[in-house]
Amino acid sequence: MIEFRNVSKNYGQKQALKNVTLAIQPGEIFGLIGHNGAGKSTAIKSLVSIIDPTAGEILVDGEKLTDHRLAIKSKIGYVPDSPNMFLRLTATEYWNLMATAYEVTPDSYQDKLTALLELFDMTENQYGVINSFSHGMRQKTFIIGALLSNPDIWILDEPMTGLDPQAVFDLKEMMKQHAAAGNIVLFSTHVLDTAQQICDHIAILKQGEVLYDGTIEDLQAQNEHQSLETIYLKMAGRQPGENPTAVSVEPEGRG
Questions:
Q1: Which phi and psi (to 5°) does residue 243 adopt?
Q2: Which of 37, 127, 196, 251 has the fewest CB atoms within 10 Å, counting from its CB?
Q3: According to the model, what pLDDT value does residue 241 have?
């Protein structure tokens, strides 16, 4: 179980998270939904120890993250919101690095890697330099790296961005299977169709605050069974009558 207890994060005068309280249970796919800048990545980066909250606490299986950081990190497979890292390494060098960091045994590593390479169609590219990869191939590289240690908790920040349709389908199926085995999948998205397809539980964030925490079914029951898109835009989007900011485009040759 993962718990956020009144977690806040400030960047100077900007409050990226505002007293966020959430409970993520084993056996469920939990979706963080919100616009860009809503606080999804800040919450995730706080959980995986990239940043420290300004206030509040995070617990995993009843243990405080601040007191058991390394033990908790060993349970987590994390896919960041950008795959533009370790660009000078080959994919294999990156996977070896991850296997070493998570103390994956050689036999387990090879078996798991072979299966993931085949699943994500990366066998022929395993010795390529990450900098030479397309965005989708980089994304696959980091997904494979996160799953090599067979972690109990998957933390995926916009994991499907740039993936081809087959890879998206396969990743969704893996997420369902992982949760069905009693594990946790926490992922962020602003693609509402994806959330509606696979999430057991969602939290809608806006400007760092939790607007809703519960199941999609309960949310729809509270809103005359409207679509998730309609409900979300009513809660987190522009209000009725509010116009988008006008953008002027300079003609070519000016400025």
A1: -95, 150
A2: 251
A3: 52
The residue assigned the tokens 């990450």 is: 130
- Domains annotated for the chain, with CATH where assigned, are 2-75+152-236 (3.40.50.300), 84-150 (no CATH)
Q: What are the CA-CA distances from residue 102 to residues 8, 76, 220 (Å)?
A: 29, 10, 41
Long-range contact list for 22-25, CB < 8 A, 24+ apart?
22/203, 22/210, 22/213, 24/184, 24/186, 24/201, 25/1, 25/184, 25/201
Give the closest residue to 8 by CA, choosing from 50, 56, 78, 62. Answer: 56
The answer to whether 54 and 8 are in contact (CB under 8 A) is: yes
Q: What is the pLDDT of residues 162-175, one digit of tens each?
A: 999 999 999 999 99
